[in-house]
Design goal:
It is a single chain. The protein is built from 17 helices and 15 strands. By secondary structure, it is α/β, with parallel strands linked by helices. The two termini are 34 Å apart. The relative contact order is 0.13.
């Protein structure tokens, strides 16, 4: 490692490498292709950022030398911030392009000359079609969160972009998971890659307890409000954009500070919401899965799965928002009867006891909770410094009846039954989202407690609302909003 870069890293507090950095950086510096599997918060950005900076030269206008592809706007902005610190040691210009923001500033940066371009696939393809940027001089490519790219349906765009780069480029893939469709990129776009699978650094992770509570649809908002009140700051995950907005209104009506982030919010709105949550000005960040990747906020006490995740990967990414930097945390899933079977399948995949528990009154009152509640998640780990395999990643066989399949079937059924849902969530009248949404408004209209579930619904039904709301936080299997 050059002395100037070592000094810069020491100033940033990066004195010793994380496991993924220790195994991946030497091969990447030697020019090898690398496939790295490591959990969120494990230092992946520096694992590819250090070799990228050391192997990238100055670029001419509109012809970047290095390209980092990411799935979401938030991750693009975060990667750019992290890379800028390291790139300063080599006087390299780093810029990012993504949707939801104006073209003018991005085009001006490209015309001035960008050495390292961080991009979401959709916006990058738009800029290429306008002749504002070309990839024919790109010799170093990183695909970050490659599995998320596959989940969001971006792999065709990623392949088209990679086809436009230099044929002798160096290609790195990093992700918290590395399986399934990512094999297409590994086989087609990497040459004899070194593959590493590294677990989280236990010294940097606190104890996180996972709890699965029985919760009737009418009780979920009340339980969420009590948890947020007692264990802020809290991140709450919903499946749909409308569901996130509705729960945010419910928490605000209960006197709690809450903001929402999802694909329908503009980039300035998303940045303001994240800044308010990170600064402690609000107690809860209510999000769809768009926030499960690439968002780094320290000291999150609690993560609540208000709606079930799409699969075990989404569960891990959501839950990874707590227990960072050595702090303890808790993850609570609110499970209705209709989702209990799929949740047990999820628990089995995660290696957790397949049990549902009643809500813990001690935790709701603000204490750490009863010892009976909560289980530690045991993750498979590979010893640092030892690659799990060489060459292309092997496709893992999916278990029959996996949680993602079950949730997807339930969502399709709920969409059919809830086509006239006045809240636009796509769930039936018996679902958690629509049922609780009406109860909250009724309580406010009658002047009763906002949690009152007893008044009959008088909400009018609309014919088209049920077809809305499945964007970046929607059901598994649907294409999500582009970055």
């Amino acid at each position: 490692m050059p002395d100037d870069l070592s000094a810069l890293l020491a100033k940033m507090g990066a004195v010793s490498p994380f496991p993924i950095q220790a195994v991946a950086i030497p091969d990447a510096l030697a020019g090898r292709d690398v496939s790295g599997r490591a959990p969120t918060g494990s230092g992946k950005t520096l694992a590819f950022g250090i070799p990228l900076v050391l192997r990238t030269s100055k670029a001419s206008p509109r012809h970047p030398q290095a390209l980092v592809l990411v799935p979401t706007r938030e991750l693009a902005a975060q990667v750019r911030r992290d890379l800028q610190q390291v790139a300063a040691a080599r006087n390299l210009e780093v810029a990012c392009v993504y949707g939801g923001a104006g073209y003018e500033g991005q085009i001006r940066a490209l015309r001035r000359g960008v050495d390292v371009l961080v991009a979401c696939p959709g916006r990058l393809e738009d800029l290429i079609s306008r002749n504002d940027v070309a990839l024919d001089e790109v010799r170093f490519v990183v695909v970050d969160e490659a599995d998320r790219m596959a989940d969001m349906g971006f792999l065709p765009s990623v392949r088209r972009l990679l086809d436009q780069t230099c044929k002798d480029r160096q290609t790195l893939l990093f992700s918290a998971t590395l399986d399934g469709e990512v094999d297409v990129l590994v086989r087609g776009y990497q040459r004899d890659p070194c593959r590493y699978e590294v677990g989280a650094d236990e010294s940097l992770s606190g104890e996180v307890r996972h709890m699965f509570w029985r919760a009737a649809p009418a009780d979920r908002a009340r339980l969420t409000a009590e948890l947020v009140s007692s264990h802020a700051p809290t991140m709450v995950f919903c499946r749909t954009r409308h569901g996130a907005d509705r729960l945010t209104r419910q928490l605000s009506a209960a006197g709690l500070g809450a903001v929402a982030i999802h694909g329908s919010r503009s980039q300035p709105q998303r940045e303001r919401a994240l800044a308010a949550f990170a600064a402690g000005r609000v107690q809860a960040l209510v999000a769809t899965d768009v926030a499960a990747r690439g968002i780094h906020v320290d000291d999150v006490t609690c993560v609540i799965h208000y709606d079930p995740p799409g699969d075990h990967k989404d569960y891990l990414h959501r839950s990874g928002r707590t227990g960072r930097a050595g702090a303890d945390g808790m993850v609570i899933s609110l499970v209705s009867q209709e989702h209990s079977g799929a949740v047990r399948s999820l628990q089995r995949v995660l290696g957790l006891p397949q049990v549902l528990e009643d809500p813990d009154d001690m935790m709701l009152a603000g204490s750490p909770g009863s010892p009976r509640n909560g289980h530690l998640l045991q993750q498979r780990r590979v010893a640092p410094g030892a690659p799990s395999s060489q060459g292309p990643a092997r496709r893992r066989r999916s278990a029959k009846g996996a949680p993602a399949d079950r949730f997807a079937k339930q969502d399709r059924r709920a969409q059919r039954e809830g086509a006239n849902d006045p809240n636009g969530s796509g769930w039936s009248a018996k679902s958690p989202s629509t049922g609780q949404g009406r109860q909250v408004r009724q309580g406010s209209r009658k002047g009763n407690s906002w949690l009152s579930p007893d008044q009959p619904s008088r909400a009018k039904r609309g014919s088209n609302a049920g077809r809305q709301g499945h964007g970046s936080g929607g059901p598994p299997g649907g294409r999500q909003a582009a970055g």
